Amino acid sequence: MDATTVRSADPSLALAPGHDAVAAQQPDWSGHPDLPFCRAELRRSAALVDPGQLTDLTAKLARVAAGEAHVFQAGDCAESLHECQPAHVRAKLDTLEQLADLMIIRTGTEVLQVGRIGGQFGKPRSNDTETHEGRELPVFRGHLVNGEEPTAQARRPDPHRLLLAHRSAAAVTAEVERRRAGLGTGPWTSHEALVLDYEAPLVRTDERTGAAFLGSTHLPWIGERTRQENGAHVRMLSGVANPVGCKIGPGASPAGVVRLCRLLDPERRAGRLVLIARMGHDRVADRLPDLVRAVAASGHRPVWLLDPMHGNTVRTRRGLKTRHLTDITAEVNAARRVLEERQQHPGGLHLEVAADEVTECVGGPVAERDLTVRNTTLCDPRLSPEQAALLLEAW
Ligand code: PEP
Ligand code: CO
Asked: Can you give the pTM of this predicted structure?
């Protein structure tokens, strides 16, 4: 496969040997003897979403872009392969639905429910290793790649997890679809399209149109660490029919964001592009206005979502990762004002929320001293449902 072929069209080739795009944040398993088998198995396995659904979701997102509806996107930071049973999924979907109902009451509009669910198994990390009790270990990269236990054995990347994850994602997605069939409405699935050995084999062709689509989820997004313009992630998602999201952090430049819009949505299809701003409460008023102005001036009309989680992570004096509800609330309200002052629609929220009353973020009923009581996240601190409801009331 030469680089010219890769550049042409087929997004599943984003990680083909000889590709010329940088692929950041990939697991260190390229020498594993079973990787080719696992990729081939994935290529043979079923897509989890149907291309017709993607057309429906794009049409719904177009209504959000036009200011007529909102999005509530939420779920785990990192989904657990051990929490994919129907009971787990139902609890997560109940939480999503209850919070989306609150948003309907607050906004008086239709609200699209989008879960960080059914494939949110891969995590980008700032460092490759961490020190645990004096020993240096590879970091946990999500259940798609390795285990969270702090042992060398668990942290070794294992490509067989690609197949486990696909099987679990299929079960989760089936439960999501059961609810949609029952209610006539319901959530959509989304995750960060990060691990290309998982995503690329799940790129499929829509038999009716000949168009490529990503079969792993309804709404894939590109993370803050993998949105390089010449990167494999941008290339892969630029070539699929799904609506696509892209995180935008405080280091983004106005011209860079406009170029990303052009790469990901060259035809400016209504409902195709979702920009997810995650600036941090102390930087949003400084950074977001120029980005919003530049995107509006470019003629692109993305859905703007606000992620007030990822720019507000801090450590307690004891070294525990947390987030403060006051910072989270401050960021969404500041970001909403930035958008409204520029006549752009604040399209909704992107949150990390657990299905049960965890104590991972500080605020509402949780004080800093309570953070160890029920802290079960595999990665970043999530809001409890009660904390998320408090945020929605302040929004
Ligand atoms: C995430 O959504 O869990 C994440 C890692 O976000 P970001 O890419 O914005 O840092
Ligand atoms: Co996170």
From this structure: 0.95
